[in-house]
Amino acid sequence: MKRFGALSAARLAPVCHGRRAGTVGRMGMARRSGRTDYVDFTHLVPSGTVTACPYKGTTSGYWSVRVGGTEHADLAWAYDFPTRQLLPISGLVAFYNEKADIFLDGLLLDRPATHFS
Length: 117
Hints:
Elements: E1 2-4, E2 7-10, E3 16-18, E4 26-28, E5 44-47, E6 52-53, E7 57-58, E8 61-67, E9 70-78, E10 93-95, E11 101-104, E12 107-108
Antiparallel strand pairs: 1-2, 1-11, 3-4, 5-8, 6-7, 8-9, 9-10, 11-12
């Protein structure tokens, strides 16, 4: 689960957990699934941000999170067309672990300290 204050933006088991040496692991979430657990776009606002990574490719979407009157810029992103080696992350939405409360199996995960913090 990804929480921003009392807001839950996603509630599901991670579909894919990615980590390469020297980086923070990211959990990709399905945008929709056959069940009711998926990324809730109610409070996600599309952003024009695009980033490129030699490992994953170019992002296809970034979203900011709007809670009340506050917008938290670019906290979620997706790679719809990642590099061939990372096709399993195609279309999954990831959130910055450094900026969101992330619960896995009911336990709050520690927020890593990175240059994104």
